[in-house]
Amino acid sequence: MKIKLMALAFTCCVVGAAQSDSKKIKEDFKPSTKNQPGKEYPQVNSQGYARFRIEAPAADSVRVSLGLGGRGGTKLEKGEDGFWMGTTEGPMDEGFHYYHVDVDGGTFNDPGAKNYYGSVRWESGIEIPAHDQEFYALKDVPHGKVEQILFPSPSTNTSRRAFVYTPPGYHKDQSKRYPVLYLQHGWGEDETAWSNQGHANLIMDNLIAEGKTKPFLIVMTYGMTNEIKFGGLRNFDIKPFQTVLVDELIPYVDQNFRTVADENHRAMGGLSMGGMETRTITMNKPGVFSHYALLSGGVYSPDDIKKEDVKLVFLSCGSKESPERIKESVAALKSAGYNAVGYISEGTAHEFQTWRRSLYELAPLLF
Amino acid sequence: MKIKLMALAFTCCVVGAAQSDSKKIKEDFKPSTKNQPGKEYPQVNSQGYARFRIEAPAADSVRVSLGLGGRGGTKLEKGEDGFWMGTTEGPMDEGFHYYHVDVDGGTFNDPGAKNYYGSVRWESGIEIPAHDQEFYALKDVPHGKVEQILFPSPSTNTSRRAFVYTPPGYHKDQSKRYPVLYLQHGWGEDETAWSNQGHANLIMDNLIAEGKTKPFLIVMTYGMTNEIKFGGLRNFDIKPFQTVLVDELIPYVDQNFRTVADENHRAMGGLSMGGMETRTITMNKPGVFSHYALLSGGVYSPDDIKKEDVKLVFLSCGSKESPERIKESVAALKSAGYNAVGYISEGTAHEFQTWRRSLYELAPLLF
């Protein structure tokens, strides 16, 4: 009996030690690169843990929405200095995450972090350093511009905003014309997402500097024309946005930028809801775009589209989404004779790291 | 005695009625134009009162920093629905205001409002409709662009960001060259301020559409190179920023935009700290700029500058600042033979409405 108890105690110790080892958090936390200037928190460590510190001395409860899935985020504990602190229970996926702070039942942002439009609100953002972060880093290479334009939209009776990435050199050689990728954000985001969260401009600058992609323009505009409501996606009507994009924005861009204004030099892509929009608009309007890209945004079946219209179908998602669905669709499209390419982002979910990597993979295949 | 008491009571009633009349708040509140999409609060009414509504059901205290001067902002009252509401004690000045929310001793932003970089943090913003708001409204006129550039800065060992306003038509007539205004933000703000808070691009679009100003470029960059700290302005060293501006940004702009690259076609202006920077740099570096503009940013004495270097000195401030100082300086400069123009913004203080109006007055005088 004594031996049995001893054995049990030993087993417990071993298990305990193993757990404590695997949970050991390295104290190499640094401010997130998405912090407001001069702000020390939130921080991230080399393992991907995130640590928060928020001042609210008289609050009863402070939680951060970021944390391991399904556990309601991270509960902060109040220190004697009036600051609430806490660390995620485990490492977070690499890349960019939206989050917010619950203070006594109200939804606020972390005063230390910069804000990014997502979930139909300006949210806090945090960056978990990724092993491949070099491809979207700000480097000492020639930089293109991100140009804010206000284009007339008779159908919505206003001037609408878009951002246009123009590659380095665009403003030097005035005889050169460029193909264009129309690139859409996801639900609850807006036309700022692909630059601010996605670093689309830096991805292109770096690819171009390495000679890995042809230079092209990227046009990013707001993909919703309906009133914005949670749950509104179910009744989403593509027509108003399709009109803005195809009948208003494309002619404006072709008139005001040096584009090659034909189907063969025009691509459309989008993430999540933007993929859904891409899929619907490319099916509704064959002959406008020749390269289609759905990033975590659904798939095509061979019957959806016609081979004479499409030079490339690019389908991608994170390995934590539904990679099998992408692979099956790409296989079916290939069997039917399409130039289809699938890409699975390893270790990422329905988040911007998946889409940054997707753009990095997509760009060299275009035009 | 009875009569005396009656008279007193009457007097009290009259005073009471007058007070209650003058304090009568019109219930024509509408969402602020600076709200996040779809958000109903904060609201403003036609008298300039601001009303806030913030959810924080378990909080003990919610205050908004905006309110009448010196009274610590506006204290919100908790309703049974868990939302805290409150209205400013009086009307606010016309135009844009920064504010934030104190929730149980912590500083947060209003989840209903968009964020603007000011006070060395991303703050909430609210817009009190101004009687003259048409001059910075988004209208159905040709729109210029706001182009984000990343320019190499060897002195700070990074790529720095600037925004360049290019007027409508800039990208059409490739033979035309343009003068440039370098326009600086205030302390605690950054290179986004003049577009986001100031609507500099819309002010120019509207002026150009009405034929009231020559088209020119506006370059807006970050005016601080030091570590950002409250109180850091006292030890502010202009040299690092002067190097970035004069030795790095100006040559980059002259190489990458179609500018008239000489002193006569180059202006510098700035608001508040940006005015201080303008004053110092124009004095340190005669021969670089020919038009100087200090918006709530100090004054020149005739001995500070030389008549052969300067075609225009523009000095402005709000009527609630120190207008006498501006008027005296302009008078002294004029007596000394300078082309000096003063402008006082009626009914505004050290805030963006003063600077929007100042730009509107300044632009037609330039070049």
UniProtKB/TrEMBL annotation, chains A, B:
Entry annotated with the keyword Flavoprotein: no
| UniProt KW keywords | Hydrolase, Signal
Which positions carry the signal peptide feature in this UniProt record?
1-17
Family annotation (Gene3D superfamilies): alpha/beta hydrolase, Immunoglobulins
Q: Name one GO molecular function term.
A: hydrolase activity
What ranges does the record give for the region Disordered, renumbered to this chain?
A: 24-44
Q: Which domain of life is it from?
A: Bacteria
Protein's name according to its UniProt entry? Alpha/beta hydrolase-fold protein
